[in-house]
Amino acid sequence: MTKQELIAEALKAREFAYVPYSKFKVGAALLTEDGKVYKGCNIE
Fold first, then answer.
1. What is the mean pLDDT of residues 23-33?
2. Which of 12, 11, 9 is nearest to 30 (CA)?
3. pTM for this one?
4. Helices assigned H by DSSP within the chain
5. Distance between CA 33 and CA 44 in Å, rounded?
6. Buried b (16+ CB within 10 A) or exposed e, 15-36
């Protein structure tokens, strides 16, 4: 997986953020050594 593909995964994850107060969405994507991608976002 390229850096750009990993960034794209983080941008997709960001869309699941729930930010009624700060209005600041954050997404993250972690690539493991065995090729799995774990995604997350902020929820307040």
1. 98
2. 9
3. 0.88
4. 3-14
5. 30
6. eebeeeeeeeeebebeeeeeee
> Where along the chain do its domains lie?
3-41
Q: Which tokens in the block code for residue 43?
A: 């929820």
The type of residue at 34 is: D
Q: Length of the chain in residues, anyone? A: 44
**End-to-end CA distance of the chain, in Å?**
30
pLDDT in tens, 5-22: 999 999 999 999 999 999
> Quick check: 14 and 37 in contact, CB under 8 A?
no
Residue 13's Cβ-count burial label (10 Å; 0-12, 13-18, 19+) is: buried
